[in-house]
Amino acid sequence: MAKTEIVSVIAAHPDDEILGCGGTIAGHIAKGDQVHVLILAEGITSRDGMADRGKCQSDLSELAKAAHNANDILGVTSLTLNNLPDNRMDSLDRLDVVKIVEAFVQANASTIVYTHHAGDVNIDHRRIHEAVVTACRPIPGQRVSTLLFFEVASSTEWQPPVSAPVFAPNWFVDISAYLPLKLKALNAYASEMRPWPHARSVTALEHLARWRGATIGVAAAEAFILGRYIHKADS
């Protein structure tokens, strides 16, 4: 019988978790793994130059509802929505973000963690990447044995290669059986999707999955950078 895993997905904004690893999440659930999703920033208040949560409370509520709908489609074990300021995470003390991530990963006893790539153009993605790497550092007693970084369309590919580390995947997950679920979950985030040919359109995301799949000889895939893998010789 295959070993079950406890998975944490740490994302910046509602929809990043589906964009980055929605198909992989569905695969974990189908296998019987637990998947706990943490979304740290609220995802609205940076728009139109407005930082007043009171003026966009209705939009925040609708986005939270969309997040629950999208994650219910995939069947995640739990979804936690935090309220850190959207696109302003560089204004927070990094240690405070680390503590939130650390508590989440420890509470769930996670063995696999997925999060953002270090070189994304979005500042929140980069700050969360740093916080996750710190929270999952390999100290004695650390349960996390696999740390993976995903790509987020309309952020990862928008960073010029001279400005930050390039997303060069070395870990692929065959999501051929789960691509329809990923696309359905993306459609639940209708307010966050954009019309084709925007990089964050459902059509573009299907093309990306098909291309990532074609690069490894399958119908559809998601691509990651492996941050760390600790293999136990007796497992």
From TrEMBL:
Q: Give one Pfam family, short name only.
A: PIG-L
Give the Gene3D superfamilies listed for this entry: LmbE-like (3.40.50.10320)
Q: Its domain of life?
A: Bacteria
Protein name as catalogued: PIG-L family deacetylase
SUPFAM superfamilies named in the record:
LmbE-like (SSF102588)
Which InterPro entries does the protein's record reference?
GlcNAc_PI_deacetylase-related (IPR003737), LmbE-like_dom_sf (IPR024078)
